[in-house]
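Reviewer comment 2.1 asked that we show a complete input and output for one of the modelled complexes. We chose the flavin mononucleotide case, as it is the one discussed in the main text.
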Amino acid sequence: MTDAPAATGVPPDRTAPAAHPIAPLLASRWSPRSFLDREVPEEMLRRLLEAARWAPSCYNAQPWHYVIARRHREPEAFAALLGCLSSGNRTWCARAPVLMISVARMDFPQNGSPNRHAWHDLGAASTLLALEAAALGLQAHQMAGFDAAKARAACAVPEGYEPVAAIALGHPGSPDALAEPYRTRETSPRIRRPIEEFGFLGRWGEAL
Ligand SMILES: Cc1cc2nc3c(=O)[nH]c(=O)nc-3n(C[C@H](O)[C@H](O)[C@H](O)COP(=O)(O)O)c2cc1C
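Response of the prediction step:
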């Protein structure tokens, strides 16, 4: 855990420097490590889950689930989730107001056959959750750096369901509250591959 003071002040402007115009909400989403010590009201959590709820999914199977722990309201569950994170993530997540894990149901409820797109659809739901967070002045930071077996035990996730990602959530704070190397990362340029590298016309490799 970090000895840095609780985050106050103004978060950096992390608006995506998009090469082509995109909806302002999309450009406003980013993944902070510094969060204000401000609770996220339950009504906001409901709105985040409602946004996730309206994601598209294969056969409308809706494989998404979230186990949520607020630092001040569910301190034991929060500590248990924190303990599942990789040591690097734990450093800055200790001050996040909310931690969660996303969990995918791995078969179709309709017939029990394997759902090959469960992780895909959970990711879509988490993206909508993150965008709704941005619309509310919050930000969500998704993480692969956690121990899924530990999270399964900590959150009593049943068989047939897979913990997929951890998510830290809250109002973003000042990078000054972070220890290095996280402080520098919080303000380093946001980089993306150009669209020509991944968007093809007609056949693989033919740039748009
Ligand atoms: C599935 C997934 C796993 C990630 N894992 C981590 C992680 O373990 N630790 C971390 O600091 N960031 C993690 N990130 C955040 C990415 O590093 C971040 O989204 C990327 O650098 C782009 O930055 P942006 O979200 O601010 O645009 C993860 C993001 C996703 C979607």
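Residues 45 and 133 are 9 Å apart (CA to CA). We note this here for comparison with the apo prediction described in Section 3.2.
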